[in-house]
TrEMBL record:
Annotated ranges, domain Thymidylate kinase-like: 20-202
Family, as annotated: Belongs to the thymidylate kinase family.
Keywords: ATP-binding, Kinase, Nucleotide biosynthesis, Nucleotide-binding, Transferase
Species of the source: Glomus cerebriforme
Coiled coil: none
Protein name (Swiss-Prot/TrEMBL): Thymidylate kinase
Top EC class for this record: transferase
One GO cellular component term: nucleus
Transmembrane portions of the chain: none
GO MF: ATP binding; dTMP kinase activity; nucleoside diphosphate kinase activity
Pfam family, one: Thymidylate_kin
Gene3D superfamilies noted in UniProt: P-loop containing nucleotide triphosphate hydrolases
Enzyme Commission code: 2.7.4.9
Pathway this chain belongs to: Pyrimidine metabolism; dTTP biosynthesis
Length: 227
């Protein structure tokens, strides 16, 4: 059946899922905040989310674990980080479908990288997150552990140790390899450059992406095998 003008007006454009990933102190939150402010001030419908979401009940356990106030088995905490993402999925899906662009600070890629860096099997680590919403872009803020160590505050939380961060960075690159069939999903950004320069590149890319994604269906296929 042919579309009439009123149908075309009623087709809702979906928002883009823009993800920031990287090791600790790479500047993810700074860039996620700056992009959020830019888009909001320029008339875009946008929301900023952060994982782990420390406000939920699960998030409070994660917070205590990260602050070294609470001990948990590595596999148990891994699953809780994943639950913390699943508990936001329905709301994220509805926001994207309502046309809101989501800027997300950390996601399942951090989930797998940190747990696998502790020695858990990579495929096991991926499995609880299979089928989550897939991001439209991953801005990977790349910083070596030496450079991260020089930045303020490094060493305060559980994972902020140079040797672990080096492993985490390697596993992020392994996950990027796993996505090698997904054209331009990963944008590797050298985090050791001016905040404003990085922001400019991120804004330019995001504006094009938002336009492109508005025409595409949402993907709930994270790490699902493509046959
Ligand atoms: P942040 O609030 O972005 O500084 O993250 C807190 C710490 O938790 C950081 O060291 C990275 C780590 N982290 C974030 N997400 C996950 C996850 O899903 N699993 C594990 N094991 N660690 C995570």
């Amino acid at each position: 059946m042919a579309l009439v003008n009123s149908d075309i007006i009623n087709i809702k454009k979906r928002g883009a899922f823009i993800l920031f990933e990287g090791c600790d102190k790479a500047g993810k939150s700074t860039q996620a905040n700056k992009l959020f402010e830019y888009l909001r001030n320029n008339g875009h419908s946008v929301e900023l989310l952060k994982f782990p979401d420390r406000k939920t009940k699960i998030g409070q356990i994660i917070n205590a674990y990260l602050a070294n106030e609470y001990e948990l088995d590595d596999k148990a905490i891994h699953l809780l980080f994943s639950v913390n993402r699943w508990e936001r999925m329905k709301a994220m899906k509805n926001l994207l479908l309502s046309g809101k662009t989501l800027i997300v600070d950390r996601y399942a890629y951090s989930g797998v990288s940190y747990s696998a860096a502790k020695g858990l099997d990579l495929n096991w680590c991926c499995s609880p997150d299979i089928g989550l919403l897939s991001p439209d872009v991953i801005f990977f803020m790349d910083l070596t552990a030496e450079e991260a160590e020089k930045r303020g505050g490094f060493g305060e939380e559980r994972y902020e140790k140079k040797s672990l961060q080096e492993k985490v960075r390697k596993i992020f690159y392994m996950l990027k390899e796993k996505d090698s069939d997904k054209d331009s999903l990963w944008r590797i950004l050298n985090a050791n450059q001016s905040v404003e320069l990085l922001h400019k590149r991120i804004v330019e890319y995001s504006l094009k992406l938002i336009e492109k994604c508005s025409q595409l269906p949402l993907k709930e296929d994270l790490w699902k095998a493509t046959s």
